[in-house]
Amino acid sequence: MARSLKRAWGLLLTLLCFSFSITLEEAERKALERNADLRVGRLEIGRRSEEARRAFGELLPRLDFELSLNFSRRLSFTLPGVPPFPPQEFTFQKEIYPKATLLLRQDIFNPVSIRDYEIRKILEKAQVYSLKEKRLDVLYRVREAYINALKAKALIALYRKQIDRVKAHLRDVEELYKEGIVPFKDLLETRVRLMEVEEKVISAEAEYAKALSHLSYLVGEEVKDLEDIDPDSVGDLSLKPPEDLKRTALRSRPVLLFYRELIRSREKALDLARSLFYPVLTAEGFLQYTEESDVFPKTRYLISLALRWNVFSGLKRLRTLEIAKIEKIQETERLRDLEKRVILEVETALEDIRSARARVKLAEAMVEEAREHLRIALEKYKAGLGTNREVLDAESYLTRAEQILRINTYDLILRMFKLRRSVGYEE
């Protein structure tokens, strides 16, 4: 029974540990779901949408109903009677009387309201592009944090591998020392080197824990372990012609689309400023029931067509027009500068990928050379032709070469992700 409980407890711990391991795809998905900036961005789209609906409501007919109880001075007129008829009193306005009014109003031509609605729709679309740019930024930050954590994890594995090699060498040195072949100094040197590597493991584990904490913050849940990334699984956009990538970035990068929509909104704002000089044509009608008078009909209606034109209101409209022109020029200049920066980002990312790929090839050659160097140093040492220091230096050189290879490989992956962000690829 106790043995079964131990097995069940061990299985549960294994499942729990496995559940803490996360892939890059899972980290991206959870970060996109839980990121506060993205949640606020989605709410902002909803707010912009409601503003557009509100502006559209200004274009629809307005219907008002009013029910009132009125108190006034009594107004009446008495017509002298002609025998045999008595005098007759006519009441034009009672002291207390109810009144109900139904008023319908519709703007037939109101360019200000039309332009305001068009601006709201454009800003709603611009906010969608702003959210997409934020998604790109969140994805890149998660990928960067994930790869940095993988680097720290790789260092731990390399240092532990180095510990195994130093321990194996230490056993050989101990045997040779017992046989009186090597001096005690070699034994001390090897033990010191082992402690140095163990200290590096402790530092690497601390860096790995900090990297996991940062990734956990971005993901929105605690992350205990990571799964490695296959470089071949990352689409390498650098294989495409650079000019195609630049054109794609200028066409698809959300931040550029965002500013283009802003320029469109500024153009509509300029039209709105011009519309302030135009007249407004409105149709109105009302239906009213009142017991105000016994002389006039209790029910009345009126249909009117009104042209309202603000002929002069100081220089306010003129200044509004000039401000709209300046704002349009400002956004246009920002867009031009941003397009240049996006092109520069793509060119820089491509150059970084070429450099990273060359460093990976160089590191692969260094690892092969270091392995051969360590093999020769061990053989010379066992044959009494080399020193222990040469073996330890060759072993450190191999660890360093392996470390450079792993780091450069992860750097290459990160550069690929950066190019995707620069071009505007989300997936």
Give a verbal description of the structure.
It is built from nine helices and eight strands. The chain is α+β, with helices and mostly antiparallel strands and 427 residues long. The strands form three sheets. Strands 2-5-7-8 form a four-stranded antiparallel sheet, with no helix packed on it. A two-stranded parallel sheet has the order 1-6. The radius of gyration is 40 Å and the shape is elongated. Residues 8-19 have low confidence and may be disordered.
What is the structure about, briefly put?
It contains nine helices and eight strands. It is of the alpha+beta class.
Instruction: Name the beta content range.
Output: 5-15%
Rg over C-alpha atoms, rounded to the nearest angstrom: 40 Å
User: What does the overall shape look like?
Assistant: elongated
> What are the secondary-structure elements, in order, as H or E?
HEHHEEEEHHEHHEEHH
Overall strand count: 8
Strand order, biggest sheet?
A: 2-5-7-8
Question: Which class do the helix and strand fractions yield?
Answer: alpha+beta
Unreliable spans: 8-19
Number of helices: 9
Q: Report the end-to-end length measured between terminal Cα atoms.
A: 51 Å
Can you summarize the main beta sheet? 4 strands, antiparallel
The helicity comes to: 55-70%
- Average of the residue pLDDT scores: 87
